[in-house]
Amino acid sequence: MDKNTFLQPFNMLRDSWLPSLGLSLEAVQSPIVESNSYRTSAEFKVKVNVNSTVRGGNCGYNCSNQYEVDNEINTIAEIGCSGKSELLNNQLQHMLDNNSLLKLYNIGEFSLKDYTFSCLITCNNCNGRGTVTCGACGGSGTQQEAYQAHVKDNVTYQNGREVSRYPIYETRHRTVNCYSCNGSGRRTCGTCGGDGVNTYEKTACFYSSYENSMIHWTKFEKLPWVCKFIANRAEEQLDINETVDWEYAKQIIQENGAPGFYKVELPGTLTAAQCRVEATSPYSETTDGICFLLGGIPYDTDFIFDQHLHWSSSKNAKIPLTGEALTPILNNRLVEECVKDMNSEQAPYGDIRNLNMVRSDTVKSLQWLMNKLYIINKEQRDSISIWKLLLNSIFAGALLAAILFGFNSLDYPNKSLNFGLYPMIANMIEVIDIVFHRSISQVNGYLDLQMWIYLMATFIPAMILMKLFGSNKALTTRRMLKWYIWGSLFLCAFLMQFVAIEKEHLNVTANNVLFDFIVLSLLGGILWTRKGAFGRQKQYAKEFNSRRLMELLGYEEQK
Known about the structure:
Elements (H helix, E strand, L loop, with lengths): L2 H15 L6 E4 L4 E14 L1 E9 L10 H16 L4 H12 L3 H7 L2 E13 L8 E3 L8 E17 L2 E17 L8 E3 L8 E12 L2 E7 L7 H7 L13 E2 L5 E4 L5 E21 L2 E11 L2 E2 L3 H8 L3 H6 L4 H8 L2 H6 L21 H23 L3 H23 L12 H23 L5 H9 L1 H11 L7 H19 L17 H30 L4 H6 L7
Antiparallel strand pairs: 1-13, 2-10, 2-13, 3-9, 4-9, 5-8, 6-7, 11-13, 12-13, 13-14, 14-15
Helix pairs in contact: 10-16, 11-16, 12-15, 14-15
C-alpha cells in the first residue's frame, strides 16, 4: 500500500464533509501494513418449540384422542431434535448453503417446518350439547316487557265547557317470548358454535439459530493495536465485521459430530495499516499524528479535523467575524451537522457508521461561534436610524392622506367617513363578534357560505399587507396565519370607517383626527423601517453562506 492509497479514504471523508476548508493531507512516511487471517464460526442444530391450543368447533382432526396427539408430537419432536429427520436436516442445510454466516447472525432465529396434530374433545362450556341456557331469560323462554297503558284522560272544564284534555299513561308489564332465544330457553354455544366439540391442536415448530459463535485470528505483530481492538470489539464503535475481507465462496459447512448438527466457518482476511500524516489548512497550524486504517476504513479521524475546525480564542483574535473570512469554515456539511442542535454536545457521525468525525469540545466551540454570529446579526438588525423612521412615517402619512383624499372625491350612496382610532377599535370588536357568532352556527349544521366567501376574499389582501409591511423572514404557515388574522381584521376595521353602518354601538366618533392620523402614519413608518432593517440584515447574513445561521435568524424554514 503506497501513500496515496492509504490517504484515499481520509481524502474522501474530507471532500465529502469539508470541501471548502482547504484542508490538505500528506503522508510523511510509508504506511505500515499488515494482513492476517480472520475467521468466524458458529454451530447450528434443529430445535423445537411445542405449543398447544383449543379451537372452537370441529376444525378438522388427524388423531382420535388427546393422548394420541401428545404422543405424535413428542415422537416427532424427539426425532427432529436428535438429527434423525432427513427432511428437517435438509431444510437446515439448505438454509446454511444459501446464506452467509454474517447474514445468519443478523437473522438470528429462522423457521424450518411446523407439524400439527389434532383431535376432537368435548366442549366444556356446553358439555357436548351444543347449546347453553339463555342468559337473557334464565332458560324460561319468556321475559317481562314494560309498556305504557292508557288508563284515563285528564280533562279540564271552564264554565261547564271542556277546555283541555290529555291522556294519562301507566307503566305495566306483560309476558313475551325471549328475544334472544325465541322462546326456546337455550342458545347456541358460543365456544363450539353448536358442534358440541372443540379441536385440540398441538404444534411442533422446528427452527434453528446460531450458538457457540467464535472468532479466530492470527496475532498482529507490527500493529499490536489491532489485537487490542479485536479483544475489545464489543466496546468499540466500529463493527469489525465491516472491516474484514470475507471469502464467502470458501464458507465451510460440515456435520458437527452427528447428523443434524452443523458447524459453519467463514474465512476472511483482516488488513490494517497506519501512517503518520500531516494536515494543513489556512485556519490552524500544521498538525501531525498517526492515522489508522482497518480494512480500508478510517479508524480515527479526530486529530485531522479537530484542530482545524475547533474555534479557539486565538482564532477569534486573528480571524475577523465576517462572511468573507468565515464562509470557508461555515459552508461545510460537517459544521452544519455540529450546529444543527445548538444544545447538543453529540459529535456528528460520518459516512461510516458510528465514526465520530470530531470531538464534543469542537462541537461546542462551533456552536459558540454560531451563537456569536447570531448576536452580531441581531445587533445589525436592531440598529435603526431615527431619520429613516421619520422619513418612512412621512411617506406612510402621505399614502394615508391620498387614500382619504381619494375617498372624499368619490360620490356614491351611503357614503360616510368616520376616520380615527376609536372607530377602528369598535369596528374590530364588531368583526370579531360577527365571525364568532356566525362560526358557532356552523356546529348546528348550517353552512354560512357568505361568511366563508368573505374570509377567503380577505386572504390575498392580507398577504399583500404582509408583502408590503412584513419582514423578509421565511414564509412559514405560522407566519402566514398570523398575518392573515391580524391583516384581515385591520383591513375590515379600516374599510368600515368609510361606510355608514346602522348600529348604535358602532357610532363612535373620532375625538382627535390629527392625532389618530399621526399615530397611524407612525405605525406604518415603524413597519417599513423594520422591514428595511430585516432586509439589510438578511443581505449581511447571506455573506456567511450558512444555511444554519439563516435558519436561526428566521430567514429560512428549519428542516
